[in-house]
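2024-03-11 09:14:02 INFO worker-7 job=invfold-0412 stage=load source=structure_tokens
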């Protein structure tokens, strides 16, 4: 074979590949593949990871782009149809991708449902961030306490949130036992124009967002992974460091939010695989380090006067009665609209039991069961209009005439990690 013929064949092969990729790009631009789920550039005013502000997104899952949802990212970079005004009051909801909840319509989420379930309506603000762990919840709480006036705080604690906090992507907090409070932020990075161009290609979005074939954090969105049971049981007792970090987390959380402990509700996710299988939770048979940290946080929170909501009984009772799952398993472990509705009703019942107006002035201690968990409150979390036999009427939430970016807080309090890794795009 001559050199010219070889070059022609290689050129034809490359041209074919390029042509196929161009064709795929054009086709996928018609298909509703995941789009708009991009990390924003660094902001001194809000140094945490957040999505591009004042934008829209499309979420879909799998090769056939099913479970389609569209939504809005507000002026603070969080999924919400409403903008946030610095200094305003309301209920804040903090968590990971379960709270960010791209796989559900906003109106079907905990934060989207909660407002209509309250006896005294007030604004509910979502601060859910995919990939967040316990130290990031605490760091987020500090910024929320500086920018807003929370009346209540609802923090979802997912499985593996303790151990996951020892490493972090850019824009996220991680554990720093030597600091006070024991967290530090890994500084966010500015994405180059090339990176921003590549992440917006339909083919890249499809491979990363729908097929889940990813180079680390190309599009910073994580599907919850259904944890597989471990066939071996190796004891992992909490160390002195573990006990100290969990205690400091519980102690610092209300102070960060500028709330009394009785206004902080910790919601604990549970082993739903065990519920569906009719088996004991894995934490009961062989508690992992994270399971023990979770239980310790529960106990400490009760002793400090905080409220806890363990979803185990709620989800188990519903599944036994209906045989309907509260998540998208086996494909996705995130809560579905049923799961969010059940938790929203429980949270609303707690808030309604103590009155939701002027939250900072109340320090009532909730009724708890013998294990310290919150006892059922009156009203069962039903919308007030349903309990009173009225047709619900929703007043439109006030919208800002112009987008408002968060004002810069005193960032001297935020400990910064000197190590910067490859962060989300």
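2024-03-11 09:14:09 INFO worker-7 stage=emit residues=425
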């Amino acid at each position: 074979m001559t050199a010219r013929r070889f070059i022609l064949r290689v050129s034809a092969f490359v041209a074919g590949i390029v042509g196929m990729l161009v064709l795929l790009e054009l086709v996928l631009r018609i298909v509703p593949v995941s789009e708009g789920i991009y990390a924003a550039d660094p902001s001194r005013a809000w140094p945490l990871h957040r999505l591009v502000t004042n934008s829209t997104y499309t979420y879909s899952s799998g090769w056939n782009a099913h479970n389609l949802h569209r939504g809005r990212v507000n002026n603070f970079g969080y999924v919400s149809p409403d903008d946030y005004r610095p200094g305003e009051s309301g209920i804040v909801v903090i968590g990971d991708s379960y709270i960010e909840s791209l796989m559900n319509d906003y109106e079907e989420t905990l934060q989207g449902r909660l407002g209509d379930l309250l006896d005294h309506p007030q604004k509910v603000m979502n601060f859910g961030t995919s990939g967040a762990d316990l130290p990031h919840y605490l760091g987020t709480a500090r910024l929320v306490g500086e920018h807003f006036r929370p009346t209540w705080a609802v923090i979802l604690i997912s499985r593996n949130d303790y151990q996951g906090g020892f490493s972090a992507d850019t824009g996220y907090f991680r554990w720093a036992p030597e600091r006070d409070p024991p967290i530090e932020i890994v500084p966010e990075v500015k994405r180059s124009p090339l990176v921003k161009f590549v992440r917006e290609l339909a083919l890249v979005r499809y491979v990363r967002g729908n097929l889940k074939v990813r180079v680390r954090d190309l599009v910073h969105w994580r599907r919850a992974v259904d944890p597989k049971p471990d066939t071996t049981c190796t004891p992992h007792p909490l160390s002195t460091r573990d006990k100290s970090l969990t205690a400091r987390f519980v102690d610092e959380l209300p102070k960060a939010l500028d709330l009394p402990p009785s206004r902080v509700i910790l919601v604990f996710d549970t082993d739903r695989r065990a519920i569906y299988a009719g088996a004991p939770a894995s934490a009961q048979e062989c508690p992992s380090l994270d399971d023990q940290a979770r239980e310790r946080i529960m106990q400490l929170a009760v002793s400090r006067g905080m409220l806890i909501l363990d979803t185990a009984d709620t989800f188990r009772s519903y599944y036994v009665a209906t045989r309907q799952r509260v998540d998208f398993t086996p494909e996705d472990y995130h809560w579905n609209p049923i799961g969010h509705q059940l938790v929203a009703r429980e949270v609303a019942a707690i808030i309604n039991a103590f009155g939701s107006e002027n939250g900072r002035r109340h320090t009532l201690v909730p009724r708890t069961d013998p294990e310290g968990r919150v006892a059922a409150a009156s009203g069962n979390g039903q919308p007030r209009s349903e309990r009173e036999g009225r047709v619900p009427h929703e007043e439109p939430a006030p919208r800002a005439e112009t987008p408002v970016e968060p004002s810069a807080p005193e960032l001297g309090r935020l400990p910064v990690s000197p190590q910067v890794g490859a962060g989300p795009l």
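2024-03-11 09:14:09 INFO worker-7 stage=report msg="The two ends are 45 Å apart (CA to CA)."
2024-03-11 09:14:10 INFO worker-7 job finished
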